[in-house]
Design goal:
This protein is of the alpha/beta class. It has one domain: Rossmann fold. It is about 25% helix and about 30% strand. The chain has a seven-stranded mixed β-sheet, sandwiched between helices. It is globular, with a radius of gyration of 18 Å.
């Protein structure tokens, strides 16, 4: 991996901001992701993220922390102990420069022998497992890291609307090359370079709930957004 996402984050942190990240998926055209958005303050965050941060408590694990904006709010404003992890070494370097006390370059699937009261999977963090057939393994790993009375707070979106037919019958067209309509191939471009496509997934709430309950969680819908997005809380069953 070229770590273009992380390079862009680090560029912004070091004052080398000249252009935004471009993203594209197998079901959507290229779009700009403004780098300043990744460095947003609490007041600039969507309501779902604000609610998750308000609910966070105890020892926190921020999975896929990116530029670390969620972690910084919890560490500096709520005075919580936060461990921030990401598979991007450049993003983690930026997080450390921003003042995060415990930012680690690692894959969440390799983390062991620690327990957390709150685990954050924000900005569609539930989709980082990439494919629906990997969700069970991912949830079991997360489960192994949750303290007895802990919680997992995650957001995602139901993208079924992207397949709706314009005809009056209200039908939907589902691509045959994927096991689940929320699975996409994700591409990142930055400063003339292109990252190889990687697996990503948007998961609807009902599918998440079934998978969570099958793997030993209780799943609760906390908040619904304005565009098919939602915030959910998982606790040990």
């Amino acid at each position: 991996m070229k770590d273009l996402f992380g390079k862009a984050i680090l560029d912004y942190q070091l004052g080398n901001y000249t252009e935004d990240i471009k993203t594209e998926t197998s079901i959507s055209e290229e779009d700009d992701l403004p780098l300043p958005y990744l460095f947003r303050s609490f007041k600039e965050m969507p309501q779902l993220e604000q609610k998750a941060l308000q609910l966070a408590k105890g020892k926190v694990l921020d999975v896929g922390c990116g530029a670390g904006s969620h972690s910084l709010y919890l560490q500096d404003e709520k005075k919580l102990a936060v461990t921030s992890v990401d598979i991007s070494p450049n993003a983690i370097e930026a997080c450390k420069l921003r003042g995060l006390k415990d930012a680690r370059f690692l894959d969440i699937m390799t983390l062991e022998n620690e327990k957390f009261d709150t685990i954050l999977l924000l900005m569609n963090g539930a989709g980082m497992c990439g494919r629906l057939d990997k969700l069970g393994e991912f949830l079991l790993k997360i489960k192994s890291l949750v303290a007895e009375y802990g919680q997992v707070l995650l957001d995602s979106s139901d993208i079924i609307y992207m397949f709706e037919d314009d005809e009056e019958d209200g039908g939907v067209w589902i691509p045959a090359d994927k096991d689940y309509y929320g699975e996409v191939d994700y591409i990142v471009r930055y400063k003339g370079e292109t990252e190889p496509a990687f697996d990503w997934m948007y998961i609807d709430y009902n599918t998440l709930k079934k998978a969570a309950e099958y793997n030993g969680f209780t799943c609760e819908l906390i908040l619904e957004g304005e565009h098919y997005d939602y915030l959910a809380k998982l606790t040990l069953a």
